[in-house]
């Protein structure tokens, strides 16, 4: 007697439930899930899923690490779920991505913006947007140039008033949910700057020109740029004074914050240099970490915080650090989502969290870097973003 075959049918899982489930999956798994089926690829590419994943990812920020070893580039990240006040160990997750050799050197990465990174090469004039979690790259189109031979800042020019590309930055506006790339051009003449903006959205990506009423140049001695709550900040020189340039990503308007004279080393006041100033996110405000040239001042942690950008009001905080940081091996990385200051140490590689209120240090060992004998760049408050380009 033949056994009858039984077929069991079930209703498909609603898409909204699948979106909720996928939003809880670790970021490194999402990219692989896109290859499972057309349905899953469709769901993981939906704007509502990407928005939900980014929202949840923002509540669980991570540390991000980049390094260059044996001609290869490596990217890692770890969660920030730490036992405050207790030394701990975290295991680094590697992002398995292939990086074309003709692209800019990713080991020179200076900042991450809402999960995306901008790499730039002044020598080869290549600019690339990179998503570490998806492994995708986007090469930016060529700039709109009045002079086709418009050089980058590092190129030599014998024409005093020749316009040059001075800097390119990535910003994100959380309200419009848009990424924009700002290209700043300048010249030696006192004429207003001409800038270009490119919006990262589907379809044809084109540069648009912006006109600024000010003439300023980028201050290359600032350690980095940063985007906080839809405003992009970087160092500049305006009328022979060092300022913080503020670019509102949504309105595409510029403003400036005057820097305090006390931020500069006594030997650098006349040259307006600020090579030892690092921008960071101080609980949603712009913060600056002021380093020092003098070894006998390594024990001090000097922080400046913008209290009111309109009135150029800053507050200054000075902390006395313990003897373990009395050397330059401690590298300032920023402020973690927990409000603690993060330092990295090269050998053996680990990070230290400094509690500003309790003035205590916590050591965090990162597993996965034992075989590397190279500089490891540390970024704080990295959020995984499923933006597919």
TrEMBL record:
Q: By its UniProt entry, which Gene3D superfamilies does this protein fall under?
A: 1.20.1280.50
Q: Which organism is it from?
A: Microthlaspi erraticum
Q: Kindly give the NCBIfam families that the UniProt entry links to this protein.
A: F_box_assoc_1 (TIGR01640)
Classification via InterPro entries? F-box-assoc_dom_typ3, F-box-assoc_interact_dom, F-box-like_dom_sf, F-box_dom
- Check the record and name the Pfam families matching this protein: F-box (PF00646), FBA_3 (PF08268)
Taking every annotated instance into account, which residue ranges of this chain make up the domain F-box? 13-53
Protein name (Swiss-Prot/TrEMBL): F-box domain-containing protein
According to the lineage, what is the superkingdom?
Eukaryota
SMART domains, A to Z: FBOX
């Amino acid at each position: 007697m033949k056994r009858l075959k039984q077929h069991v049918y079930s209703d498909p899982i609603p898409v909204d439930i699948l979106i909720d489930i996928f939003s809880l999956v670790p970021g490194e798994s999402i990219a692989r899930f896109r290859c499972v089926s057309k349905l899953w690829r469709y769901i993981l590419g939906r704007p509502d899923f990407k928005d939900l994943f980014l929202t949840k990812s923002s509540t669980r920020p991570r540390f991000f690490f980049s390094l260059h070893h044996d001609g290869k580039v490596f990217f890692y990240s770890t969660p920030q779920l730490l036992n405050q006040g207790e030394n701990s160990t975290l295991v680094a997750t590697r992002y398995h991505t292939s990086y074309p050799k003709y692209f800019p050197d990713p080991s020179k990465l200076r900042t991450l913006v809402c999960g995306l990174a901008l790499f730039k090469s002044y020598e080869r004039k290549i600019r690339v947007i990179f998503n570490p979690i998806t492994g995708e790259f986007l090469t930016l189109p060529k700039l709109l140039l009045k002079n086709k031979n418009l050089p980058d800042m590092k190129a030599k020019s014998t024409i005093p008033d020749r316009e040059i590309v001075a800097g390119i930055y990535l910003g994100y506006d959380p309200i419009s949910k848009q990424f924009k790339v700002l290209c700043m051009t300048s010249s030696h003449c006192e004429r207003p700057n001409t800038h270009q903006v490119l919006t990262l959205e589907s379809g044809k990506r084109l540069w648009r020109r912006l006109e600024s009423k000010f003439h300023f140049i980028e201050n290359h001695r600032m350690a980095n740029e940063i985007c906080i709550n839809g405003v992009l900040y970087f160092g500049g020189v305006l009328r022979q004074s060092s300022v913080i340039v503020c670019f509102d990503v949504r309105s595409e308007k510029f403003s400036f914050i005057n820097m305090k004279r006390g931020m500069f080393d006594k030997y650098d006041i006349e040259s307006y240099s600020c090579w030892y100033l690092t921008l960071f996110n101080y609980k949603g405000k712009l913060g600056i970490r002021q380093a020092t040239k003098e070894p006998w001042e390594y024990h001090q942690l000097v922080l400046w915080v913008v209290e009111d950008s309109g009135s150029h009001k800053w507050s200054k905080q000075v902390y006395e650090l313990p003897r373990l940081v009395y050397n330059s091996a401690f590298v300032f990385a920023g402020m973690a989502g927990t409000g603690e200051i993060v330092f990295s140490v090269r050998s053996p590689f680990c990070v230290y969290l400094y509690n500003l209120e309790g003035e205590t240090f916590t050591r965090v060992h990162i597993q996965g870097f034992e075989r590397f004998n190279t500089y490891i760049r540390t970024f704080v408050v990295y959020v995984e973003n499923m933006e597919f380009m």
